[in-house]
Amino acid sequence: MQVYMQGLQGQLPSLPVSPEALEQQALAHLSQKAAGYLAGMDDTMQANLRAFQHWSILPRMLRDVSRRQLSTTILGMQLPVPLLLAPIGVQSIIHPEAELAVARAARATGVPIILSTAASRSIEAVAQELADTPRWFQLYWSKNPDLNASLVRRAEQAGYSAIVVTLDTRLLSWREQDIQNAYLPFLQGEGLANYFSDPIFRQALAQSPEENPAMAIRYFIEIFLNPSLTWDQLAFLRQHTSLPIFLKGVLHPDDARQTIDAGMDGIIVSNHGGRQVGGSRAALDALPAVVEAAGGQIPVLFDSGIRRGSDVLKAIALGARAVLLGRPYIWGLALDGEAGVQQVLQNLLADLDLTLAVSGFSSISQLDASLLVNERPAA
Ligand code: FNR
């Protein structure tokens, strides 16, 4: 109501409310290279979005929804909303204040952050902006095990409460726009704050990264791509942290079972927003089988295609405990820095709260598959 009242008083939203219009405006505002980096394989991105349309909400009427509950608990961690900000690296190519602006918006709205290894600001600097806002750290598993352990240790010390290991980016995939634009931000030193500030990374170099950035970037390239990483190496991480470990990028139910066998604590179903495996299955279509394979033993989270409140409800009804918001907050960042991210988050949370209510539910914990109808034509 507050939002509608503001509109009636002439206070129009400063950013487009519809995610499609927001995206269009943000991409037009960014350089061709930055916009290309945000892109993915068009067919896979579209499949991610289309998958939500295969499910419809069947609302219930005349239930008391005057008080609503959006909070949730995952492995004993209290989340104010069933939403976290997905790890998105190199935000300095989007806005000069990068992850710091996002952290301030997260703090203002209470939405937890998952910070990328490839952030443009360090683990510690982002933690300082976040104050007591919940935060997790996403690890790209490099070829230097001591560096991995060091990043995790720094995250623990800076108050991050879970580690997310991204599985789908052991190699950078065939990214048409980046290849066309001859662009990879890391080669310009973007997104390397956590490496350059790390004592183990610095130790491995003959000179400091500040003195000789080209050499530091060469070392980063040498260790970042890690196609020989396999399941058995997860034991190393288990030994080096007592924090819960989530594996991000699981799509196959057998990989969900292997996640449990490897002693991991949670799964994030994701296809990296269609930026890794071209032609991959839409992430939402992969969710039910992964949830079934996890069998309630470990929590399953979801990303890739969350744009609206109804998308959040659908993913939760299909078994996700919470979802990660990806590109939409980056579009807000591109257009108006901290205020832009804050507006995107406020809109999404208001949309989620209202859609929950008008669907006839007062708590996200009540949602299950009975909320949904599968609209796919029978084969
Ligand atoms: C990502 N994503 C990502 N994931 C990750 O684990 N570490 C990272 O550093 C990044 N970086 C990154 C950069 C950009 C530009 C994008 C668009 C995505 C993937 C991200 O966490 C998430 O899985 C997707 O963004 C979800 O898809 P949608 O909802 O954004 O389409």
UniProtKB/TrEMBL annotation:
InterPro entries: Aldolase_TIM (IPR013785), Alpha-hydoxy_acid_DH_FMN (IPR012133), FMN-dep_DH (IPR000262), FMN_HAD (IPR037396), FMN_hydac_DH_AS (IPR008259). Its cofactor is FMN. Gene3D superfamilies: Aldolase class I. Residues 11-377 form the FMN hydroxy acid dehydrogenase domain. It comes from the Bacteria. Keywords: Oxidoreductase. The keyword Transmembrane does not apply. The keyword Lyase does not apply. Belongs to the FMN-dependent alpha-hydroxy acid dehydrogenase family. This is Oxidoreductase. It comes from Dictyobacter halimunensis.
